[in-house]
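Homework help board

Subject: predicted structure for assignment chain

Our instructor gave us this sequence and asked us to write out the predicted structure in token form, then describe one feature. I got the tokens but I'm not sure how to describe them. Can anyone check?
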Amino acid sequence: MAIERHFLGRKEPLLHAAVRWLSDQAPPDKSRGVWDLSDWMLVTAGSRAGRRLQELLADQSREMVLLPPRVMTVGRLPERLYEPGLPVIDDLGAMMLWIEVFQEASSDCFEGLGLRPESVHRFDESLDLAKEIIRLRQELGGEGLSIESVGLALATSSDDREVARWQALAELDERWTAKLASLGYSNLEQARQDAMEQGTLRCEATIVLIGTLDLPGVHRRMLEHMDSAIHALIAAPIEEADQYDTVGGIRPDAAESIFIELSEESIAMVDQPQHQAEWVANRLTCASGDRPALLEQATPEQVTIGLGDGESGPMVLRHLEAHGVRGRLPTMGAYRDMGPAVLLERIGAWLSHAGREAFTLLIRHPDLGDYLRHHQPPPESTPPPPPEAPTPEAPPEAPPEAPTSEAGDAAADGTSASSDFLAQVDAYVAEHLPVAFGPPWPDRVSGPHRLQAIWDRMRELAGAEHTPPVETLRPLGEWSRRFLEILDRVYGPRELDLNDPNDARFAQALSAMRDRLVEQIPEISQTLESPPITIMQAVSLTLGRLGQDGPASPGDPQAVELLGWLELPLDDATFLLVTGFNEGLIPEAVSRDSFLPESLRARLGIQHDQRRLARDLASMRVLLSPWRTCYWIAGRRDADLNPLAPSRLMLRLAGEALARRVVKFYGHEQWADSGSAVMEPPASTPRPLLNLGPDNQTPLPESLGATAFRDYLACPFQFYLTHILGLEMPDDQAVEMDPLQFGTFAHAVLDAIAKVERSQLGESDDLLAHLDAFSRRWLERQYGKPVPVALELQRAHLMGRLHAPVRWQWKQWQEGWEIRHAELSVQRKLEVENGTLVVRGRVDRVDAHPDGRWRVIDFKTGDKAISPEKAHRGESPVLEGDWIDLQLPLYDWMLRGQIVPVDAEIELGYYSVPSKAAEAGWVPVEWTMDDLGDALIMAERVAEAVLARRFWPPVSVKRGRMVDLPGLMSEWALGSKQGVVR
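My token output:
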């Protein structure tokens, strides 16, 4: 049945419009005083929106009885549409089954993935790979795809290595699925697919999708297979209907037609995260001139704070509390950060390392302190050793002083040794400085029986049969039983008052931990049992499964709500303040994926940058509805003082408007230096556009790289930032090589060809094997042992790309070509009217042929093949001429007369090593000497402009090689280059 779309406009909050729409579609029976919505199923993007919708329905039906609809989130919808034929395996069982598959798989299968079998057979590495494949299956399954279907889609690809990778994945997936079926289980993705294929999707209720801007692919397919009535309510006018798909989601290509207009008054720029929080608190509580504080205009329920960075919530709460404002996060922290989880983590660390620090940190856990105070045996239970007989040289020690009455009373009920156990341990550590806590005790230690009692009690609690460190390997199920015993001993006697919010929160954390541990004890089949692992591996696996789940915060009508970005479009607050309005947060950064690069994501139609951008633009358009007032707060630096860039949603402008918006972000240095958040710049402070421009004091470089000329021809100001000020954007969050690092790795491997002894190679496969071994050694030297799985996958991906260049190189040798130079550094003075610049370059390869020909090769390792003609020729927006890159012509000019005879025939070109093997190859250019002369004239004009300091104004161009202007400017605009100067 076709899904009926309803465009409700943006004149009121979508949830309010949805209630009115429901009232029209299913009118209340006023004669009976009943509003029956029991046959309706309402689906929202987030749980908070669902709760708010139920509140609005209750308000609407205040004078009658409401038979409520079923309200759920998008994530829960699919499992309400079918009954699985077999029980569905949980995530832990799936991981354990994958590990078993890896143990049984052939070496050829792992080699197809580019992995060494011996590395995958280690538990940590096999667990990482299992998590990666489960994540991949879930993402594909969420879009209605499978590993097999992607493999079939790539079957016609010319990239043999990529095809082999997915074939290996499909083989492993087939084995895993067969094992799962033999156990009588299914998996979530297969259960959904079976329901569609078998036609068992059922829903008696009328389904209403409310504001679901980005519905996953599998949801779409399931809904399209339904016979039920389905409606999609969209917060947009009918004139925008062509921007939405058949299920009410925003189309990815709609991003090109959505324009966002933000007033300058609605944008605030501050320095660090705490300044963003302070800005929000000030705006809520402090008046400014004729403008009242927001909480003087509205109640807390009418204000929402949006969190672009979800981790900033607790900090915002603290700043609100300091200003007398109550705030409310959806959850009260993550379970894995609460007492029971932290206790297991500290016990695992102590048993694994046995260091003094691990033990003292463990006994400082407040819950464990309560346990020791109530359960440690009295001193009498462990009598002190008898004193040694005095020697003639030394008189007997004086007897110990009698205890005070307070200590004596405590000893009577058996608590003295535990009431001050921390003081005892600290005194021992301060006096004797042990490497590890535990026996044998020094001869002169005070109260060894008390320290021994603490030690024995801790070992008993942890179930340590041997003195730590414990090297015992046990299956996960056995560790889980041990963890349950620990929690029962520590928390079992505790009495809780569930009416107390803190006790209720703790009870939820303890229950969540217990549920995870019980799930890890296999009951159905030993096949799901894990191989023997260490205690820290068991702890890590257990806590990792808790994720970021946490107990829900209690409702509070006097608290300002703090919501994540994806929850905001369905929020109905009159005032909205969005923090973290920075690139990488809004829109969220696209993480690199070895299996699903951006190009393949776009081809498959799964979550990719364009789709995410369209969703966030559509969300922003909803947030800017006329009934709401919005403020957008962006930071210049993160908590570690790393520079940030403004969200690209803020910069969808052109020309001078873009420049002024950039000034809004970077143009007032006092904000960054003052150390405090400023509501807005002083009215008397002039902010001319040229405040952003280059200065005349920074020294010019004496030399420029050949590629720098390209940057000047694209944008003089970006050239100034990168090549004069030396600014760059560091990335300290990467878990795998970024494109620049990958290119460095690839060039190092290609450079190894020049150093090989050809006489030791029998065929091209020998060269490939040599490069394979070299690439492994290079990674180990660069990143240490063992090499992470993500980097191994990238290495395998590169080796797959190198088949074509290796075969080509072998053929060149057979044709007489010789490698004369690799990674050759060259330079030459370029003299112009107003001075001299040294041009330098690093040439990837210089080859020569006995007949006098020369060849200059520049290797390109990007995902797509590049034409050197297209890369070099075009219309520059800066200087008149038909050159946009001068790299190869400058190489020719620098080499002649130094490395190559002046009148030699030089063949210039690129050798592309792209993802698709069929696109790899040598592509020379066909430039005449006149062409090269024109290029040198253009280089001279660039040099003259640089020496004349012509770096303004910025140029806005759409070209893939351009570096992001706001990102590059951030540290310079802050008035500091520390940490980013090359």
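Reply (TA_rk): Your tokens look well-formed. For the description, you could write something like this. Residues 824 and 843 are 5 Å apart (CA to CA). That's the kind of observation they're looking for.
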